[in-house]
Amino acid sequence: MRALTHWGLALSLLLLTGTVQAGMPVVAVASSLQFAFPELVAAFHDETGLDVRINYGASGNFRRQIGQGAPFELFLSADEVSILALHEEGFTEDEGVVYAKGRLAWLQRVGRGDLPASDDPLAAVRQAIARHSAGEGRPRLALANPEHAPYGMAARQALEHADLWEASAPLRVMGENVSQAAQFALSDDARGGLVAYSLALAPTVAERSEHVLIPADWHAPLVQRMALIEGAGETARAFYAWLQEQEAQVILARYGFSGPDAEGDTH
């Protein structure tokens, strides 16, 4: 009964957001892909005539929803753990494939202050902590919630690497996912935030912001895996296969994602 109730709640949510249509598979997509994905979906339609519907969110939340029976047919996670756990629990057809590797970036609004240098990318965090300690305000620092967002976990690891996690606690504001964290990073009371590089490159974000990459070895690799959910239909299968082809990989590269076989610090 509980599983049916969870499934019903998930289905109701999808219906309310207009994402369930007859014959059109629903794809769960990590928020780091929010700006790249419309281009991917359009290119897929142009080539095949097929359509999919997209739900964006935090990978950890999708993992839970799929485990509760949410009617997704394909899941593109921002990590590997969520996919591999779902496969172990019997919800995906197999372990899926790595489709991209992401990067973390410091993002701030233009005019918010000096952009940190590439060799000291968290300088703005230290400055914000110093200002707060001196009673000069409370400049916010945005990141996704590490409990269910892979980019949030990477942000925490980067702050821990710089010995800034504990000191930044009074200033941190958590987004439900990395896309929301990017919105918070550009808000009026924020000094900036740690977000997906792909979001920083999006034209609507780039025109009013600036960014610096966080060294890749400051956090665990952001290896992004996708898999078909048990019972997926033919359109979802076609989209899954197409996402592994060169045209899709070229689009992903424009948004700062490395290919599945890329090694090391490629950006």
TrEMBL record:
Where does the signal peptide begin and end? 1-22
In the UniProt record, does the keyword Protein biosynthesis occur?
no
GO MF terms here are: metal ion binding; molybdate ion binding
Q: What CDD domains does the record point to?
A: PBP2_AvModA (cd13539)
Q: Which InterPro entries match?
A: AvModA-like_subst-bd, ModA, ModA/WtpA
Q: Which UniProt keywords apply?
A: Metal-binding, Molybdenum, Signal
One Pfam family in the UniProt entry: SBP_bac_11
Name a single GO biological process. Answer: molybdate ion transport
The lineage's top-level taxon is Bacteria
Q: Which residues bind molybdate?
A: S32, S59, V178
Q: Give the family, as the similarity comment puts it.
A: Belongs to the bacterial solute-binding protein ModA family.
What is the protein named? Molybdate transport system substrate-binding protein
Q: What is the lineage of its organism?
A: Bacteria, Pseudomonadati, Pseudomonadota, Gammaproteobacteria, Oceanospirillales
